[in-house]
Write a structure and sequence with these properties.
DUF2231 domain-containing protein; membrane; about 170 residues; two-stranded antiparallel sheet; 2 domains
C-alpha cells in the first residue's frame, strides 16, 4: 500500500463521521435522548481524529501522484487549501464536542445550549467537507471536473475529457 492508497482509505472518514454525527445528534435532540447526544459527540471527536490522519497522509499522497499524467498541480493545491480549512473546522467541531460531552456528563446548565452549538458547527463543517472531498476527487477523476464532457468512442468506449478543450473539437466535428 503506497501513500496515495493509504490517503484514499482514510480521507473518507472525516466526511462520513460528521454526517453520521449530525443524524445521531438530531435524533438525540428530537427524542431528548442524552445517550444519542453523547454518541453523536463521540462521532464528531472520532471524525476530528480521522482528520488528523487524513492530513498526515495527504503530503505523501501528493508526492505519489503529482507527476502522474493528467494530474495538475493546481488541482492538488485547490484540494490542499480546501482540506486545510475543513480540517481546522473539524478540529473545532471535535473540541466543541468534547466540551459538550463534558457538559452533558456533568449536567452543566450550558448543556442545552451546547447541543445546538455543536449542531451549527457540524452543519458548517459539512459544507467544507463536501468541498474537500470534491476537490480531492477531481485530482484523478476527470469525469467530475467542472466542464467535463462524456464522449462515446467508435468502439463504444466511454472517455472522460475536459470540456473546455473537447467542446471546441466536438463543434468542429459537427
Amino acid at each position: 500500500m503506497n501513500n496515495a492508497h493509504l490517503h484514499m482509505v482514510i480521507n473518507h472518514l472525516p466526511i462520513i463521521f460528521p454526517i453520521a454525527g449530525i443524524v445521531v445528534l438530531l435524533v438525540g435532540i428530537f427524542s431528548k435522548s442524552e445517550v444519542s447526544k453523547r454518541n453523536s459527540y463521540l462521532l464528531f471527536i472520532i471524525g476530528a481524529m480521522a482528520s488528523i490522519a487524513a492530513m498526515a497522509t495527504g503530503e505523501g499522497a501528493e508526492e505519489t501522484v503529482e507527476n502522474l499524467p493528467g494530474v495538475a498541480e493546481s488541482l492538488i493545491k485547490t484540494h490542499e487549501e480546501a482540506s486545510e480549512l475543513f480540517a481546522g473546522l473539524s478540529y473545532v467541531l471535535g473540541g466543541a464536542s468534547l466540551l459538550a460531552l463534558l457538559a452533558n456528563f456533568k449536567a452543566f446548565k450550558i448543556n442545552n445550549l451546547m447541543q445546538f452549538v455543536v449542531l451549527a458547527i457540524s452543519a458548517g463543517s459539512l459544507y467544507f467537507a463536501v468541498e474537500a472531498g470534491r476537490t480531492g476527487g477531481e485530482i484523478r477523476h476527470t469525469e467530475i471536473r467542472s466542464g467535463a464532457v462524456i464522449k462515446t468512442g467508435e468502439q463504444g468506449e466511454n472517455a472522460y475529457q475536459n470540456g473546455s478543450e473537447n467542446t471546441k473539437k466536438e463543434k468542429d466535428e459537427d
